[in-house]
Amino acid sequence: MIDLARERFTKNLWTERESAERPCLVTVRDEADQARFVAEEVLKNREAGMRLKEQAVLFRASHHSGPLEVELTRRNIPFVKFGGLNFLDSAHVKDMLAALRFAQNPRDRVAGFRVMQLLPGVGPSSAQTVLDAMADRPDPVAALTELPCPPRAAADWPGFVVLLGDLRERGAGWPAEIAQVRNWYEPHLKRIHEDAEMRKADLLQLEDIAAGYPSRERFLTELTLDPPDATSGQAGVPLLDEDYLILSTIHSAKGQEWKSVFVLNTVDGCIPSDLGVGTTEEIEEERRLLYVAMTRAKDSLSLVVPQRFFTHGQSSTGDRHVYASRTRFIPGKLLELFEFRPWPVVAAGQAGGTQARHVRVDVGARMRGMWR
How far apart are CA 353 and CA 34, in angstroms? Predict the structure, then answer.
């Protein structure tokens, strides 16, 4: 791959270790399947004796790992992320989840304390006063309509009360409820954060992740979030004797090696980044980044290729997805160097199941021709 670069230092990699295993190009339906594939492979490797620390998941941009972080959290797989804040630790994601948790359980003082302070004019003292008054009522949500609003929050308090009432009545149903919370939260997001547009993309991704859960209760339960203790925060430093999966941006992975490496979103628009294709020099730098990612692997390398990505704002005739093609850095003439692996693999005759999205075929000229 690096031999196709327009300019490069002459470097020919060699090894004394020989193996019949080739790097894998793994096709998955979307980012949700990508997350499930990586989680299952990581656990499979661990059962075979490979520690979590000996495995790494690499990605071009920090936000690419969002669905995977949710899946790892759901499965109780410990991980440490290098190069950006954890998706579930970001302030705006915590705010959204706090609103859902407070609607689910109005006696959750931690969630209520957080979400009330999103309103302008509501501080810790005002929020504490409201929560104390709600604790004495048999129906805390109904009590909100009767309690006087904080003096400096008169403009935004009615909308907050209406939101909680709608969520309690479940009129919209799931997952439309999380869209209700996002629509309520977006004006506050713009007021609180200067980079609101970037954070809004995370909220849309959270909404897409939530659609994969059958109910609000299941979504909140399986995430098993720790109570948020601040508006944001970095992940704590792990202990040396703990075992955890490595999640890292490619930039942060330079100089490191792991036995098994998974590279997420190996498609145009992600690698190369759609922001890094303005000039030939930028494209070649993106090529070098993918080269760095691929050469972090000692024994096993999987490049994951989602076929579609969730998007927002399409016309009514769209399916809320855009479709992606394999990265330009792996052209057809290099495909013979890879093993092709559609996922999930289902047996013939079982294509009607919920997980039946791909049927494995013999890897040969037919598959290579399709990928070209």
Answer: 18
Residue 107 has pLDDT above 80, yes or no: yes
Structure tokens at 331: 């052209």
The CA-based angle 317-327-300, given to 5 degrees, is 120
Crossing angle of helices 216-223/91-104, nearest 10°? Answer: 130
Residue 100 has which token pair?
């859902």
Distance from chain centroid for Cα 175 = 17
Write the secondary structure of 263-331 as one string of H (helix), E (strand) and C (coil). Answer: ECCCECEECCECCCCCCHHHHHHHHHHHHHHHCCEEEEEEEEEECEEECCCCCCCCCCEEECCECCCCC
CA 246/CA 263 separation, integer angstroms? 12
**Taking the C-alpha atoms of 72, 73, 78 and 80 in order, what is their torsion angle to the nearest 10 degrees?**
80
CATH topology for 2-86+248-371 is Rossmann fold (3.40.50)
More confident residue, 239 or 17: 17
Domain with CATH 1.10.486.10 in the chain: 89-223
Show the tokens assigned to 196. Answer: 């609101």
Q: What is 89-223's CATH superfamily?
A: PCRA; domain 4 (1.10.486.10)
When the pLDDT of each residue in the chain is averaged and rounded to a whole number, the result is 83
> Before 120, cis peptide (omega within 30)?
no
